[in-house]
Amino acid sequence: MSNSVDPKYQSTAPDEPNIHEASDVIISSDTRRENRIPPGQTQTRKWPVLHYGHVPKIDLKSWRLQIDGLVDNPLTFTLEEFQSLPRVKVFSDFHCVTRWSRLGNLWEGVSVRHLMELVGVQDTARFVIATGYDSGWTTNLPLTDFDVEDALLVDRHDGVELDADHGGPVRLVVPRLYAWKSAKWLRRLTFLDDDQPGYWEQVGYHLHGDPWIVNPQNPDGERFRDDPGWQGERRE
């Protein structure tokens, strides 16, 4: 697709965080870094489309989001119910494990923290599994990265409705982790007391997936479980 017809191509430089300082937008802390590109990454102005299988065909009228596991009040939302919840906007960068980073994204949707309050996540919960509509694809996240101000369930990106190629109608976005942790075509969130590897994690991807984790032997982020970065520390 040429840049002239790609609606996601950034024809100008991406926004800087200070553009949103006086607005109602939550600014992701990693977006305030002097160097916003993690180790081993390259900036792109496109938004590449990557997934392991086909884009699922989702009937918007039958779409459901289920939230369960270690919660006091399991809930299921229709798309209309989801979109009627209080809204937030988050400005963040987006880092794919395939080594590209798209800076200056404006996400709109529902805060993860608000959903956690609605279902009453129990004190014993330590992890969450996100499940997609694409043949039950899953990814695991620790609550220390999920229960944060800038994590949200997204249905709009850069002012327009989130398209199916990029995970619409609703996807998870957790800016501080690699993008495979931001599950597309979301249909379920399950809170757990133990860490259960998801689809890519079962074949060797890192259980955590922080692009800013480094160590002297491998300053390249948490990509795979067998690399020295497994024992690294987050670069601030």
Q: How many strand elements?
A: 14
Quote the CATH topology. Answer: Sulfite Oxidase, Chain A, domain 2
User: What general outline do the C-alpha atoms trace?
Assistant: globular
What's the name of the CATH homologous superfamily? Oxidoreductase, molybdopterin-binding domain
Q: Please report the first level of CATH classification, the CATH class.
A: Alpha Beta
* SS field, number of helical segments: 4
| CATH architectural arrangement | Alpha-Beta Complex
In helices, the fraction of residues equals under 10%
How many domains? The number is: 1
Low-confidence stretches: 227-236
Mean pLDDT: 86
State which percent range the strand residues make up.
25-35%
Task: Characterize the main sheet.
Answer: 7 strands, mixed
What this model shows, in words?
With 236 residues, the chain is mainly β. The strands form three sheets. Strands 1, 2, 5, 6, 9, 10 and 11 form a seven-stranded mixed sheet that branches. The relative contact order is 0.18. Residues 227-236 have low confidence and may be disordered. It has one domain (17-226): Alpha-Beta Complex (Sulfite Oxidase, Chain A, domain 2), CATH 3.90.420.10. The chain is globular. The protein has helices at 79-83, 112-119, 143-146, 199-202, and strands spanning 25-27, 42-43, 64-69, 75-78, 88-95, 100-111, 127-132, 138-142, 152-157, 160-161, 171-173, 186-192, 213-214, 233-234. It holds the Pfam family Oxidored_molyb. InterPro entries: OxRdtase_Mopterin-bd_dom (IPR000572), OxRdtase_Mopterin-bd_sf (IPR036374). Residues 1-13 have a biased composition (Polar residues). Residues 1-43, 216-236 are annotated as: Disordered. Residues 53-200 form the Oxidoreductase molybdopterin-binding domain.
